[in-house]
Amino acid sequence: MKSKKILFAIFGLVLTLALAKVFFSNTLSTTGGKIAMLEKEASNLDLENSLLGEEIVKLSSLSRISSEAENLGFGKPNLVSNLTSEIPVALK
Known about the structure:
- The chain is mostly helical.
- Helix content is about 75%, strand content about 0%.
- The chain has 2 helices and no strands.
- The chain has helices at about 1-60, 60-70.
- The protein starts with a helix and ends in a 21-residue tail after the last helix.
- This is Cell division protein FtsL.
């Protein structure tokens, strides 16, 4: 009778450990898939970030801005005039 209880306890322990192993294996494989997906997404975002950085550099170059300004009708002024104040701003 005592040996049947011990055998039943061992069988229950083995069954519990087997179920725990299946549960944790499933959890780890699912987590590994999620990690791989997130790493791929991070890689894609890094690539997109570098491409956008290159586009920012290209669009903000002074030569491009100057040519766009000329296309929009802006130009260098022919005559520069300065305004002078007759009255000083701060009185003594």
